[in-house]
């Protein structure tokens, strides 16, 4: 063996790092966070799917003498792979700050990218922000000659997810760093984003944008940010230089690196013969380039790979050759380089010879995210052998030739054809062979190639089905000489439709029966049983037919254009073969400017940036797991149940405890009798399952160890023996109804009027059902906690990522048998919450507290993404059964609804969620006779919990579905039916609350005007006439959301204000910051109340020892409750200072404060607020459950590809009544973010469970898809209603967190409108049902046409599905 070295050498932010004792299992992310304490880079998923861990890696390419910069996922990158490379993290960009900068709470002068995101309001919770910063930064650094285009920015963000912002401000902020830097005059109002104005960001106009000119004189702004707001410009010459050592010396490049760890050895040979020798010696060793697959197998499948080999420095594996017949790529060429070279060839070469290159390039655009493509290798994709590989079908359809080499057998060439894959992830390559290179053939003049892919989400998603087609015609004819078809997602391997291929040779492409015949042949070649892994058997078969239809049409068009055939292609097939065109993104944000006479120091009403925005973009914002390690700290891992309905026979931790470094094991026996239970409504949940488990993912025990990896390994060694319980495991609402499995005593019913009489006398009556699926919270920061025992009197300190610190305090105190005054829970900030951290934080905090208290050592735990998704519950799925009576105008006369929700295995907040669903069953409509009965189902799934909207969206979706049914039945425009039934001022709801200050009709009318709904409808009708398989639809949806906790006692808040002698103010309140900007708004409230600049006020954290007995930050009430409490406290202080101010009217705040101190006037006080005028009795249906309502309306236009089920939102216009906004930037951000989260709920996100044991299948971003930047509306306009002050909240504002989410149902109903158009063209009219979410599968199957009719559709109940969507 050649001489080797074992020291890792690399650079991080310009500093040389030498690591002598690296473990090959360590990732770059682990090293940055735990060894270098650079915590700006975040762990969001651990599988390269969210981008929170994005960093820039740079290397010197000696052949071309260039420095290459590329973004990577630090969570996947092995630490050993960065030997000889330079790493830049979010902490390493920008310029060193000065003392003044540190006073302003950030340590560095912001880089241009950081400034854009901070000032453009591009961060909310901030957890994803460093990843976006580094993706954009890397894009700028890698574009040497000119700024990137917006298309390149959007591609660069493919691998980055944000759950808060809705992406709009991120894209708009980055636009000013692109060649497209200006809006092009497309800002609403006809202005330009570069225009200056003297009051605030963006453009402003006078007049009645959406108000009353006679009563409203304030100007309207049409954009939150413009280019003139940014001070920092970008120049590559000002960036940190690449480390000269790496550029001047090849010493590290030529080293044969061998890193021997405790469990794994890493080899990095530098010559091909070394690589072949290693494969001969270790034939089952994994060759690692990007580690994008091996890392997942090691982390999630717990595979052991004792030998890993990197071919990164071997010239032959990275070589690229050009010949007359092909492009030949080394196996280690990355997919980004592969794509770049292919695109260059397409640009430079003749079209007829580069058709295959073009098809590959297009497919690569949809392959994973940019960070993955930057490191993943061609050979890795082939050798992984995924049955849904995006590239293998294309390689097989074109018969690409692979060159294999081994030390003993030398070189051989093999063709990728139907014999290449021998089984699931198996192929003909021998274990000692290396895939050296692949030849990508050029196409002939009469040869056509294309590939197709359908996935749940367009960008960065694995395929449901992909297909590749190649046809070679006899010269200058349409007669098929050769044809190949390969498919992924139709078998355990990529397969070829051999029978179809053989039958088509000699046929003519313009044969009128060709498509019909091929459909039959393909269904014979590609059978799928209904229980097939992956599910969706009918849909998957239909995609194969659709793909061929598209390919046939594409080729036929070219043959016609070349005048080889004279076929007449029907006009209505226009664009059927193409993807939905992606237009240019644009947006507008319309809001009132503050009055011209408002003092400059008065921050209320101004679009002030998030107070922590600059900390977010620099990586300096501290989250729970960013806290420095403490002396003696241990890490906890949970032992979770893998059974849903079983008795625990025994628990054996001996194997776990035998591992060196494991310090403890805790289960139910370690908690005092009677204290192993908790729950927010009823105590029906155990900290540790004691005698039985009632769902997969239930906590049985925990293990604590010296480090997280060891604790997790030990937890997997704990042996739990189960015995099945009698009776069936229940997973779905239908299962629960069948087995009468409900939470007895927790039903809710509201009845208004005489429903039965109303139905009897109605002109028309319809009955129907509607189902709405659940939704995973997918906060970017998973559940995390750090528990620290204080050493005396039983005191314990908890830092938790929770929306409800008082609940965590109470649960821990009760479990440990301590009074609450010994337990402090504090929250600095959360990386998102959305309701998922209202109660479920206690599930993690309680076990950690038990372990910490017993061992008297700090205990830390941050759940991995899969653990979090397996155990913490989702939004409640709902089933509605309804009967509606109405007249011929569409006026509803009676509605009877039975609601069922899937509560999971414990009550949690399910009763309150059902209450809100029942309250919101009317949405925005007056229905004089209404009965709604709500039942919570007990199932064997992890307890479902609060989620933004808290049951409201589920109830509102039901009545909107009713509105659509009524309109369809009467053949009326759904908007007309909705408008007819809207509430008016003074109406009473079904729970008898009178509507005051009701702006529903204003929102509705303004939204129609903003959207130009009449013109839009004409355009849609014209488009649909011209397109058979592309359809557009539109929907206008209102919302009315009640503001208050329905549990009366929660409608209270406290605040604590300290004023120090220097005039600085420390503010604490009971709300928690999770990205919604609550702290920022509270600073604005205090600023106005005290009449001092915001800069004098500071909020450190939320803590139970500062403000006790806090309500959860939920129900959209955070600003209302805490704002009034802050106002109360500040007013007390103002009153105390009043005599001093009167005596010294010309003094300053600081002087008044100092005088008060010397006069012994208290400069500290508490504030308190309880919401007045609310309270409701279900028994009598009397009272006012809500203090007021937030109103709004949204109009969305979509385009649907009827052949695949894809859709794109072309435009959304939103009008919201937010009273007088405390902060238009934050409120508009909440509208946009809530809408896009709702977009996921109604169209994309589908939690799946195993029907066998209820195990969660969707456990991470690889198979659970939240919206990406590509999914948001191409035109996204938000307008805040003017002239509607709210007398019931702080400074006339309104709550905003939850109300906008439901407006995304406008996309759902627009999709339904488009489907209806497609069905009408197929001769299908009248009612049809599509449940939420409107996934691509459901859309395609509802667009019934001749292709769909060919596919068999098994009846539910006749087979066991692979997965259950609850």
UniProtKB/TrEMBL annotation:
It comes from Daphnia galeata. Homodimer. Mo-molybdopterin binds at residues 803, 834, 948, 1115. Residues 259-445 form the FAD-binding PCMH-type domain. It catalyses: xanthine + NAD(+) + H2O = urate + NADH + H(+); hypoxanthine + NAD(+) + H2O = xanthine + NADH + H(+). This is xanthine dehydrogenase. It is found in: Peroxisome. Gene3D superfamilies: 3.10.20.30, 3.30.465.10, [2Fe-2S]-binding domain, Aldehyde oxidase/xanthine dehydrogenase, a/b hammerhead, Aldehyde oxidase/xanthine dehydrogenase, molybdopterin binding domain, CO dehydrogenase flavoprotein, C-terminal domain, Uridine Diphospho-n-acetylenolpyruvylglucosamine Reductase, domain 2. [2Fe-2S] cluster 1 binds at residues 45, 50, 53, 75. The keyword Transmembrane does not apply. Its EC number is 1.17.1.4. Its main location: other. Keywords: 2Fe-2S, FAD, Flavoprotein, Iron, Iron-sulfur, Metal-binding, Molybdenum, NAD, Oxidoreductase, Peroxisome. Binds 1 Mo-molybdopterin (Mo-MPT) cofactor per subunit. Binds 2 [2Fe-2S] clusters. It is an enzyme of class 1 (oxidoreductase). FAD binds at residues 287-294, 367, 390, 435, 453.
